[in-house]
Amino acid sequence: MSGLDNIPLEGSAIIASNHESYFDFLCFLAVSKRWVYYLTKKEHFENTTWGPFMKYTGQIEVDRESSDKAAVYERAFRVLREGKLLGIFPEGTRSPNGKLQKAHTGVAKIALLAKAPVIPVGMMGTFKILSKFQYLPRFRKCQVIIGKPIPLDKYYGQEITDSLLQGITDSIMRTIGKLTKEKYPC
Length: 186
Description:
Low-confidence stretches: none
Distance between the termini: 27 Å
Helix content: 25-40%
Largest sheet: 6 strands, mixed
Structural class: alpha/beta
Radius of gyration: 15 Å
Mean pLDDT: 90
Shape: globular
């Protein structure tokens, strides 16, 4: 684990991480000085094992099939307004092969609208612990590498276009790629 000092002790920020495994958020929470409220797919809330944990810990339910994300954005903005950390996996789902995947632009949109910095996080080794296709974890080492916060204030006041959001998202993911020593496929 490296870069723990890059997580502010107070104030809001967005934790943006690659997503190799179910273990990613647990590994980050294990090293973080602060709690993180992650955007989490609806199916986890419906699961008899994960559901109670997701609800109890305040994770934010995302219905990926719904085109109306207003409630998700409102919950995310509330977390950030309260000076808390919001966790996002920009790729939207776990990697099928342990490599970086093309990311969605929600991380950039939330960061710009909330005027919150983005803290890039690289997870390495969690795919070998529990890939998307495994049911039982294996004992392996993993690394959590926390990058320096990415301020987006130079974009505040600009018109928020798809192109701007994609450019910011790709920049965040390239930074995560540097942390994980991978090339972002954009």
